Amino acid sequence: MNGSQSRGGKRRPLSKRVSSGPPAGGFVFFRANRHKDGFILVSVLLLCVMLVASATAYAWFVRTQIRAVFQEKTALQARGIAFLLTQEVMKALKLLSKKSDSLHDPWFQPMFIPLQDFGVANVSLKPLDNKIPLKYLFASKNNRNSDIDTGLKIVWPNMWLELGERGISLPAKVLDYIDVDTVPRAGGRDGPDNLNRDLFDISELLGIPEITPELLYGEPPTKRGLADYCTLWSGKQININTVEPHVLALFENMNWNTVEDVMKYRAEKEITNIADLKREIPSFPNLQNTMFIIGYTSDYYNLKIQLLDENWNSTRYFDIVLLKSEGRILRWEEM
Ligand SMILES: [Ca+2]
Q1: 87 vs 81, 113, 223, CA distance in Å?
Q2: CA of residue 175 to ligand 1 center, whole Å
Q3: Mean pLDDT of residues grouped by 10 in the chain (335 residues)?
């Protein structure tokens, strides 16, 4: 049945049909509202997403800032603890008066110190003075007499021989680079471009054109460098209880078998005099020229402090060098 007809088959006037149904304009109006509502809904959703994203980003920002502040607070607290421990170690070192500084001493065993509200400190102190002393290369202190120290006259050139071709032309040039005068010695090179003063850091030797980082720091594990033989952290005398074996091998008439015997001996006992050593090791040579640069105690010490939290996780690490005679901190490295 056609919808425009009445049930009795009588057709209604068109104007009535139009006026009785939903107006055409109203239908159009209804469709337009749906589009607008959808647009508003999408807009609100986008706004919500933006707000949530902003809130999340802000929360992350705040979290990062709080963490940074917390880490800074922990770092400052750790630094304070390390400094106090260093001061206490320094005081103890000043009171310590011994015939030798040997690794057998209980002082030089690792110590674990509980810290209230922080965790534990793992403290390790080691005597240095274990390599050729760059601050005492010359016959007089302050570098005023540029003659090399008598005790080093054999050890110094032997070291360059060990460094091979890389260093064969350098022993005199390095001395000229450091000594105060500006007159070149035989085989050397001097002038105002040289430092002509004591080194503040061993890396200053890189100012000599022939000294490369490989020559200075070596190429582990195959090649040793200058820094394996020389140090700024040694007094005039090298402590035989701590001397590096390859440095002891530079001493006059010293062969590698004797060096190994010395290492075995000191692994069991502290060394307080050469006479004991000679008695135990018959091959130990007479050190006529180098005797003056052998000692039994140290003036420089390496202090390592590792701070651990309550769960024994490492939080901070400090590597420090102390000079006992002057009660000074010479190096402070923090990781
Ligand atoms: Ca010079």
Answers
A1: 10, 15, 38
A2: 7
A3: 44 47 50 68 85 87 84 84 94 87 90 87 96 92 76 93 89 93 91 91 95 94 94 96 97 95 95 92 90 94 91 86 95 93
Tokens 């001996």, residue located: 265
Nearest to 107 by CA among 121, 120, 119, 95: 95
Report the distance separating Cα 115 and Cα 89, nearest Å.
16
Distance from the CA of 23 to the center of ligand 1, in angstroms? 108
Cβ distance 262 to 277 under 8 Å?
Answer: yes
Beta strands in 207-285 (DSSP E): 230-231, 238-239
Cα–ligand 1 centroid distance for 188 (angstroms): 9
CA 229 to ligand 1 center in whole angstroms: 22
Rounded to the nearest angstrom, the distance between the alpha carbon of 148 and the centre of ligand 1 is 12
**CA end-to-end span of the chain, whole Å?**
93
| Region for residue 284 given its phi and psi (left: phi exceeds 0; alpha: psi -120 to 50; beta: otherwise) | beta
The distance from CA 77 to its chain's CA centroid, rounded to whole angstroms, is: 19
pLDDT in the model for residue 2? 44
- If you measure from the C-alpha of residue 119 to the centroid of ligand 1, how many angstroms do you get, rounded to a whole number? 51
